[in-house]
Amino acid sequence: MFGEIEADDNHVLRYSLLYDFFQCFSDVTLYGLPIAQCLAPHFLVHIQSFVDYNRSDTATINKLRIKHSFFTMGDITEKLVSIERIKPVTLKKSKTSLLLSDGYERFASEHLKEYDVTLYTTKYEKKLIQSTPRLSYYMLQSEINAIRGNQKMRKQEAQLAEDLKKQLAKCSTHYYFKKKAFQTWLFATYKKSILWIYVLEKLILRAKPSLIVVSSEASIYGTVLSLLSKKYQITLVNIPLVAIGDRTLIPARANYYFAWGPFQKQWLLERNIKENMIVETGNLYFYYQQAKPTCTKAMFYRTLNIPTNHRIITFTTQPLPQANRKIEQWVKNVSTLLPVTFIIKKHRSDRHDYSLIKDEKNVRILKSDYPLYTALHYSDCVMTVASTTGFEAVLLGKPLLILQPSIPYHHVLNSNDSMAFFVKTRAGERIKNDTQMKEVVKKIVASNEYVEELKERGRKFIEQTILTVDDAPLLVKKHIEDILSK
Asked: C-alpha angle with apex 301: 296 to 305, nearest 5 degrees?
């Protein structure tokens, strides 16, 4: 959903390195899984400084593009998975056993009561839902702590170290793998993969699931589970909870993808995911996130000391420091004489303090734990760069203001055109500078017709983006049942 089809220079460089990493080190295995593939999420983080430094070396990148035929993101998706050789192992699976992450907890509790559901969680402490006796939890961190440093782990560490040294000797002339920084990282990080593989292998053998559901195939646990699904021939279903991009998808190994709607389906097709593997189900996450306001509108205005004649424009932030500083200045430049109050709803990872505007009489900064949906419900407009909250706002019928300051490249946060998604899909009004901000705010205050026009854009956007919210749980369950019946 987020990201263009063309493979740009930084993607060619990072995925060429990942492809070479797979080729050089996939022969080193544990429990039948290639260690290189298990380490992929950490490897992509590790190479950040190298990619950042070399992403302007167009001559080298063009050679890599041609060498690997990395012209589209679909090319990359196919090529990375094509070299995997995982020997299948027969496992007698339970037809009623399902394995899901705890992100699907409420769905499982309400709609999968006739199944034996295991939810895996990375949290140390978990408030458990007890609404069904067939729902159990697997505490990954507790399992890891229980085996860390034991004799069996130390023996496997020693064996893998020897195997990796042998493979490293074979790849000693590689332009990146010959670097001391890579070798230090490799021998410091491979030990973690032993823990991940061991506890997830144990989980698979205990639950014997017929189906595994993940929200990201490129996370640490999503990666290992996707590889284990190939080993034990277990159907893997990718059901995205929040808006996904290539960083959370590639390498793509799932048997099925439950897409939010037409836009996401097309985006998956562009990654060379076969059409018969994609099912449109709407958005499960938004169904369970949506909530009624925690107070009345009058109380909301009174608690935040907002004049009752004011329009409320809520800015849902993202951890984009330079962009947030610019947007803060745009807000600062809006006349305080206008009957408008700006609410800043900060992302949990947004460290910007908004000191320039926090004392302005037309600005309110909410605490990080303030209920999102209360703020959204009582907002007249919502503005964001590319936050998932933009979808939630439009679903509530709120006009969307799409903030588009110049945003510098960032290996994780801004490495493709994902920040322009709402603009490309015409979800609302684009704002590129403080002059446009002032003009748009004036129009919102002066023209109900303009506000209705923005709402109509949002409605058309949702039609193409999210098949349904209200029926999403039923559709997801139906298609899970269809898959299990095959």
From this structure: 145
Query: What's the burial of 255, exposed, middle or buried (CB within 10 Å: 0-12/13-18/19+)?
Result: middle
Q: Which amino acid is at 323?
A: A
> Between the CA of residue 375 and those of 135, 331, 364, 394, 450, what are the distances in Å?
34, 18, 11, 13, 22
Number of domains in the chain: 2
Given a cut of 90, is residue 396 above it in pLDDT? yes
Structure tokens at 282: 């709407």
| pLDDT tens digit sequence for 74-115 | 999 999 999 999 999 999 999 999 999 999 999 999 999 999
Does residue 6 sit within a domain?
no
d(Cα 132, Cα 147) in Å, to the nearest integer? Answer: 30
CB 240 within 8 A of CB 260: yes
Note whether residue 410 is domain-resident: yes
pTM, entire model: 0.93
- Domain presence at residue 151: yes
Tokens (6 digits) for 186: 């490799």
Mean pLDDT, rounded, of the chain: 94
Q: In the structure, what pLDDT confidence band is assigned to residue 33 with cuts at 50, 70 and 90?
A: very high
Residues sharing a CB contact under 8 Å with residue 181, sequence separation 6 or more, in sequence order = none
328 and 390 in a common domain: yes
H-run or E-run covering 212: strand 211-214
